Predict the structure.
Amino acid sequence: MALLIFLLLLAFSAVTADEDAFIGVNIGTDLSDMPHPTQVVALLKAQNIRHVRLYDADRGMLVALANTGIQVVVSVPNDQILGIGQSNSTAANWVSRNIVAHYPATNITAICVGSDVLTTLPNAARLLVNALKYIQSALVSSNLDRQVKVSTPLSSSLILDPFPPSQAFFNKTWNPILAPMLSFLQSTNSYLMLNVYPYYDYVQSDGTIPLDYALFKPLLPNQEAVDSNTLVHYTNVFDATVDAAYFAMAFLNFTNLPVIITETGWPSKGDSNEPDASLENANTYNSNLIRHVLNKTGTPKHPGMAVSTYIYELYNEDMKTGPLSEKNWGLFDANGDPVYILHLTGSGSVLANDTTNQTYCTAKDGSDPKMLQAALDWACGPGKVDCSALLQGKPCYEPDNVIAHATYAFDTYYHQMGKSPEACNFNGVAAITTTDPSHGTCVFPGSLGRNGTMVNITAPSMNSSSSDSSHYMINGSGVLMSILTVIRLVIWGVIFV
């Protein structure tokens, strides 16, 4: 009997691992033309976003979210923590006005009491635990404590010596607050909320963190980071940071608190001194993040355990202060147009924001340039792709490099062949993507412009020849096809046909 009780207690206290992981989105409002709440909710529905976090408890948003089923996390703004942390009645009034008045029509699941309080508002830190307890007490009085969790997002910068994760610990200056805070979270069956930004970890690492490691890109075994104490291999910054949080909590004797990531993302644009804030990197990070979370990969310390995550953020916020990157973390602009189309083909519908269901064929990064050139030659020759747009002075000549020209030729051939998966191979140097490779005046086949007009192409007759592209090779300098290229075309014709 004693053994049975022990096992039951162990099961009850274990970090929850059987809940499905989810991807949510933060909704910031620092836009000069903030969409109306009904427009925001329409976008959420169109993108099948079922989890959102608000930075306040805006009544308009809470009303618009009513009866949608979308799970909502609301926030006590940092500037209200001092008042709530000093007054139980103030906390009760806040809960009555912002939670009770909207629940259950609006599916509120959690309350963030402030955000990054210890690192951005240290004068309110001493009242943070009080504020948590007072908000919780108000929920208990309203019989909502089981439906609505209470926590506070912490910056991952509070974790010192984060690698190897097994040596991580919280900044001891804050232990007098962190210990009772973690005790509160444990006693209320809540979770640790953590803001994780591999972009900043990478930028501030002075080259010690490889870009691919920050972006979730596949690594060779000898490129993986190894925890020298546990011999566990890490393939990305995100997992290492989450595990560092688990170890930091264990250092304070808390081993049964799950972690939820309340903020993470990557900027899509930056100033001249922020070269890695780019569309491609933002797309890569968020696409890989979504796959990683929804696959319930977990972390090396807790494999298979849900690490639910909120992406920062829904909209680009043009009114943010600071460098250009601060304004460009959004997945959409104020009109609801995607800043980029996530690489999510076959990964479910959440945030697969290619509402046109368009796919494209592009050259793979890192491909052998000679292989790309040979494939380009074949596409513009035997493949019967009209490559005239790649000539000097034409819309797709720039950028003048083989990967850009090959992408245009590959995608045109892919669409000529009815978007058959077999038509986007080119001996392994091409891949299908949902990201529209069009740029500037170079509009790719199948692309939808802002006016919603699709660019169509017609497959050429297989017994006809192009007056432009069959007579020359399109390469970096636009020179005529050489005898060697003709030989190469014959060889690649055998491979592709």
